[in-house]
Amino acid sequence: MKYLLLKHYRGGPTPVTDMPMIDKWTPEEISAHVNYMQEFAARLQESGEYVDGQALAPEGTFVRYDGEGRPPVTDGPFAETKDLIAGWMVIDVDSYERALELAAELSAAPGQGGKPIHEWLELRPFLTAPPTITE
User: In 10 A of CB 2, how many CB atoms?
Assistant: First the structure.
């Protein structure tokens, strides 16, 4: 079972610590956080549960098709993903319970003062089969 873990800058319940790290954390706190993430991913690679993951830059653009022969529409009246999504990780685990366990562990990455950030992560399962369409 594959799951997507989404790390959010904002959205969801209020985090225990202040975010985002770039504006408020010391270089040492950022390094400790990044090292935790890398060690977490390395451990999951060893167990065969890691598929992929990336941190995302804050820059980004919404793009929408606006019809044949027309330029794409960029940016929009919607909340921008670049303000919401900080990064992601894909895991491949044996059960939903294991996915919850790993998400909770990832939520404990260190933040300011080395304390766990208790970050809210969005856990989304991948579709295993296309939906059935009935008429």
Answer: 15
Can you tell me the distance from the alpha carbon of 5 to that of 53, in angstroms, rounded to the nearest whole number? Answer: 9
Q: Please, are residues 87 and 54 in contact by the beta-carbon 8 Å criterion?
A: yes
**CA distances to 30, 66, 73 from 27, in Å:** 5, 43, 38
What does the alpha-carbon distance between residue 33 and residue 116 come to, in Å, rounded to a whole number? 9
Q: Which bin fits 66, alpha (ψ -120 to 50), beta or left (φ > 0)?
A: alpha
Distance of CA 119 to the CA centre of its chain: 10
* Single-letter amino acid code for the residue at 40: F
Predicted TM-score of the model (pTM) = 0.73
The answer, yes or no, to whether the previous bond of 20 is cis (omega within 30 of 0) is: yes
Contacts of 13 (CB under 8 A, 6+ apart): 120
Q: pLDDT (tens digit, 9 = 90+) per residue, 72-107?
A: 766 654 554 445 677 889 999 999 999 999 999 998
